[in-house]
Amino acid sequence: MTRLSRRCVPPAPGGPRVRALLALLTLCALLLPGPPARADTPLDLDTGGRITDTVGALGLRRAQVTSALDRLHSTHHVQLYVTYVRDFSGRSGHDWADATADRNGLGPRDVLLAVATHRQQYAVSAAGDSGFRRAQLDAVAATAIAPAVAQHDWAGAAIGAADGYGSVLRGEPVRPPAISPGDSDPGGGLVPRHRQVWLPVAVAAVVCLTLLCLCSRRAAQRRAARRARRAARANRAARAARAARAARASRTDRAGGADPVDRAVVATSTEPGLTRMVQPLTPLPALDAEAARSLVETDDAVRTSAEELLFAAAQLGGAATRPFAEAVGYAKGELADAFRLRQRLDDTPYEDEELRRRALDEICSHCTSANRRLDAESEAFDRLRGLRANAAGILAHAEAAARALAPRIDTAEAALAALTGCCAGTALSAFARHPAEARDRLAFATAGLAEARRALTAGDADGAAVSLRAAEAALSQARTLTTAALRRAHELTGTAARLRAAVLDAEAGLAAARSGPASAEGARRAATAERVLTGVRRDMAGGRYDPRAVLRRVEEAAASLDAEAARTGGGRADERRARRRVERAVLAARGEVAAARDFVSTHRGAVGCRARTRLAEAERHLTRARGLPADEGREILSATGHADSLARQARALAEHDVTDYLTGGGAGRPAPYDPEASRPARALGGALLGGVIIAGLLPATFGGGATRGRLADGAEG
User: Could you tell me which residue ranges the TPM domain spans (predicted)?
Assistant: First the structure.
């Protein structure tokens, strides 16, 4: 008979005591701090405040530091961020502090004090346009920060810095702080030095030992009882086995058949162990969608912030709003980098999933940085504008702007109508509804201004601020739509004049090609150019045509002839024609990019990521073309060609998104904006289409993703 058994090892003498000691050591290991970690390079600052203390340097004096930082900010509008780390990871203090400030998007009115406690080092990072002179920063460092750091007064260093910066801004001498030495190496070493740590450890140890002794005594009693039960079962099993053998011996039939065996069933259990919680990677499709959503939301935040910044500059002047213009510029730069990565993914998708994941993560990182910078400035922007306190003056200015805009919309509509007799429908169709949409936005703005006026009369400053901000945003879009329509009318008129000059240049190039050295390629290009020019003359003689499309065909034919002429050594006339073609190309690209930008801005409630990505890339190419020297004609033509093509792609994608939005996406939902509805319904629908109002039908304002909807919380002030 096979026997299944489990080996039992008797407990060693003193086993409970040993286990108690091991448990106590384990508890202390969990409660005591581990070896100090090196500081990240750069470090992510604490999002919950302006103090990032990774080593516990401040202790009970954290409130004093916070009070000093608040005092500096409320008096001089300077944000002092303080971070304590063990060391600067082998980098110089200034490099580490500057890298941390850049990573966290600190602005010109933000100063970072970084302290490395292990080596008693410190560094200050301040922007060149922070308003502090180098001599002032050095005076504060030498008088208020260095003495405190040298004597391990970590809180005193931050308090001295805050008070010192306040002194230099008031024109007063910097005063040395009152030194209160603290721990020489907070966070350094394995054993803590504070009662606040030892007291809970000691209490926990006593409780743990008491519980372990009680559990050990009860466990010994349970083991004795189990041994007695096993002995009794063994005796019963032995008696049963003897009886069975006696019964088998008395049997006469012993043919075949194995002895029946009662199989013992051994039940085992495994105590659950510690499992490591691993955060699963976001699936690539979900990460791709998250990146696209971040791009759209960040683009909306940047556009809204830039629009309200214009109102603030008109109200307060450019000097007062310069810090916020810099914040918007920084956010635009981060957003441009994110769109550039998105365009690369669209052009050449990475087959390697890891590379694609990194690119998508970087897109989200750029968007986060842009939003964080705008969010950091939103509170100061509200204080500067004082939308509630200055509501009466802002309202009067907005009402005057609304009255002046109405006749300008009529002018734009008349200008487009005057071109219908000479321009094809394709040249005007994209702008035909701009005047009507401008009137819808103006109607929404007028209603908002009237509501703001009623709220002011009733003493409701919060309600007046909400209505006034919504009216401002709608006025901005009405002005943009009107300007876009007028610009297109002007461009079409100018393009028609430039087209005649372009045809003459192309004909001169064709004549030069025919008189030059004969070649098969030259003959082919000349024949193609002649066919194009023949078709262009026919279109121009027909009366109604699209000047921009026709000019594009002429320029392409002329470029082909110029390329062949350059191969055979053309003269000065060829250079002059090339320069004129470059000028026309820059004008054409600028017009297409502006048209796409205006359309996306005034329809951003519906426009998705792809259209915005193409627009950002078009703007990048146009900026590059403008920055090239005049003698780089070929490079300029290449850049403007890309800008023109990408802008037209962006416009087409945006119009497709808007069509889906107007038709409810084909899912049977009612259209959120019906151009044929009544004026009030169109006004509200247009505000939603343009992103003038967001969730809860409240207006968006200056700020990033976390603060642009803050009017919903009544935080405007």
Answer: 61-165
